[in-house]
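Quick board copy: two proteins, each given as sequence then tokens.
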Amino acid sequence: MGTVYGYIRVSTREQNEDRQWIALREVVPVERNIYTDKQSGRDFNRPAYQRLVRRMRKDDVLYIKSIDRLGRDYGEILEQWRVLTKEKGIDIVVLDMPILDTRRGKDLIGTFLSDVVLQILSFVAENEKTNIRQRQAEGISAARARGVQFGRPASPLPDAFKPVYQQWKADKITSTAAAKLCGMPLSTFRYKADMYERANMM
């Protein structure tokens, strides 16, 4: 049997590093063999993982808490699994899913079943992410339909805006002069004027 390693990936927005760490410390005897990356979902550059992959050799064992620690989507999880198990000859043990333990069932049927289960679980994980994004989008759309405003609240119009706007609308002053009297950039005045006009037309 080779060297035993562990890998932890945690987003800067999540707080589950301790849970992963506790689980891995029970199965990885040498603490320095546990590698940790703290990367958000957008930034998937994983320096600790890359160092770990370079260090591991054939017959080493890698423990991870859950399958989604290997990648951010279905395709990447499958690719990392292939590289580690097929190209480097490393065994992987997924603590949350004991059936994904490549040390067992080294025969053709065992390997086939492990690969099938991996593909199903990876697909389910990716599908759940897609469903979450869809639910978020639907929630935002429904909130907007109820009149909920997102983003920074609009700054109030200056007291002088209405009379200045009326003079500008009557072509008594230029846009530049109106913006100056309101104490705002020309583009902001034009935007505010357009919003003001829309609001008063309703």
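And the next:
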Amino acid sequence: MKQTPRSAAIDILCEWQETGQSIDLIKERLAPSFSEPRDTQLTAALVFGVLRQCGHLDWILSKFSSHPLSKMKPLTLQALRVGLYQLLYMDRIPASAAINESVQVIKKNRQPKWLSGFVNGLLRNVSRKLESSQMDFDLPLHAKLSHPQWLIDRWLKRWGQEKTEEICLSNNTPAQLCLCVNTSRIEPDTLRHNFQQSGIQADPGLFSPEALILRDYRGPVTNLPGFAEGLFQVQDETAQLVVHLLSPFTPGNYLDGCAGLGGKTSLLAQKMRGNLSITAVEPQAGRSSLLTENLERLGFSAQVTTFAGDIASFHEQTDDLFTGVLIDAPCSGTGVIRRHPDIRWNREPNDFLKFQQKQLNILKTAAKLTKPNGALVYATCSMEPEENEEVITLFLKKQPEFHLENARDFLPGSAEKLVDESGFLKTIPGKNCSDGFFAARLRKT
């Protein structure tokens, strides 16, 4: 079967439903290489659009379907979701194209004739209701906000209705593109001018001096002028601020204990201008390989030593202690649902305590690697207390040689308002922030 953007999106969503894996990994593995960039963009728009609006789509489908959604095969359900998403959210796509393509996917996968008729009839019924303006349903909150009810309930207890709705609606819109300028090679104002000369609008960040925000850019990041030359990397402002918590960046050796793709490692390297050595630890082979590639592109390979393993394995193989240790811990990711919309559907209520135990184990090892009077920065892209404040409280009870310092004392003045009364850096998705982040700075005395 020849792949089309719609059939590719359905295949990716079926794999996600069946495996629960990260949608980014599945998309990277299954998305075909279309000759037309617009086909690639349409595939991504359908996949991420369905995931963002899945709660709304399923509620509408349940109103029109004679079969329970829970008993449908993944192929049927995802074909319906992709078709319905186009009808409700993509005005430029004719209803006939949206419906027919979903039906064709069912047929080409040799499903029973009645099933293709069922998909065709349901979507055409919705289309007729839309044309006659008979779709004015009173949506329940989980359908309106398209988040699991249990997650909405958690946030309602903490923030109330207005803030919870703001977070959820923010999560349901594509995140703006934020860059971290590589100031070892170019100044932010110069890069901003270069973008504008190429017809790309770029604005300074609100909180980080290295940030540029490209609100309207929708193309591949690799096509931006300066990417190949290593003039920038993609990184949200709040993630950039976490690195600032290691300031004043005194000469010494630093450890990024959960380096990922190397975004924070690279920013740390550029802040020090070569006056320090950095070790970046990353256990996942795929990420470790991309970490090396990113360091080479940005020009920091000579400054950074990589270790392919977890922080516990690294600790067993070194006697070094570090002036600064950064732990961007594995977490539930509830603060970056806007960028990874599948997270909301992949998580369960008991996940937060599971992550907490992992985070405490990592911090315990990081504490042993921190020099006396050294700084230990702990960060997550979670908004949940179990992974944030509770982790710090539990850690400090068992590690009396550490104490909490006020993050406000180490951040740019523009970011001071993001620090709460306890001294934690905390952001919440909404009008001014794309991501929810938490960070704490600890000092070993």
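Board note added afterward: The longest helix spans residues 149-171.
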